[in-house]
Amino acid sequence: MKIRLIAAATLLLPFCAATAATPAPVQDLGTGVTGSDSDRIARLERIIKARQEAEIDMQRRLDALQQEVLDLHGTTEQQNYQINQMLQRQRQLYDEISKLSSQQTSNVANAVPAQPAAASSGSSLSETDSYQRAVDLVLKARQYDAAIPAFKEFISQYPNSGFADNANYWLGQLLYNKGDYVQAKTAFENVVNNFKASDKRPDSLVKLGLIAEKNNDKATAKSRYQQVVKEYANSAAASIAKQQLAAIKP
């Protein structure tokens, strides 16, 4: 019996020695994945590299977004500059037209005598013909002084005409160009107060503001301009009113 046990032990010794010499596999307790130290290091390197690439990509996107914001900001500034230039040019044109009209009025007054007889003949004309005649004195004949009584006569004869708002505005403009601000104010106020739906109303309000400025009445001028901005926010008259408001010194 002892001989058999000794023989069995002799046979098992090499197997036990081999088992003891083989290292136990390394196990990643956090993931349950087994592997050597080199495998674990390689895996960590891949994770770190992936994170670095993700951070680089995120930074690249942030840089792109920042550049887009800068580009949009630059575009907005450029557009604002262009709008301001357009508004400034519009105001210059507005002033140039007024000056040109004043010069033409003065030249006509010196070179061509007024024709009261022609103006009085308007009583025999129809409503439309009477209005057209007054307009033609301005646009075709350039007889501005003669046009003033022609428009006054038309307004007197046809106070409720569909042309009455335009006639009052024309009259106010002619009187304004002559420097007769008292009568011009009355004509523009007729448009503002009696023709609420007229497309000449915002321009008449601007003119009333300009007349107030010429009379050094800054409070009334500001009130008129603010009314234009409030009631006709998207109009050309509102653009002029905003510029006039900005130019009024406190």
Automatic annotation (TrEMBL):
Which domain of life does this protein belong to? Answer: Bacteria
Q: Where is the signal peptide?
A: 1-20
Q: Where is the YbgF trimerisation domain?
A: 38-109
The primary location reported for this protein is: periplasm
Per UniProt, subcellular location reads as: Periplasm
Which keywords appear in this protein's UniProt record, sorted alphabetically? Answer: Cell cycle, Cell division, Periplasm, Signal
Q: Name one Pfam family in it.
A: TPR_6
- Which family, according to UniProt? Belongs to the CpoB family.
Q: Briefly, what is this protein's role?
A: Mediates coordination of peptidoglycan synthesis and outer membrane constriction during cell division.
NCBIfam families, alphabetized: tol_pal_ybgF
Give the HAMAP family listed for this entry.
Answer: CpoB
The protein depicted here goes by the name: Cell division coordinator CpoB
What is the originating organism of this protein?
Answer: Shewanella yunxiaonensis
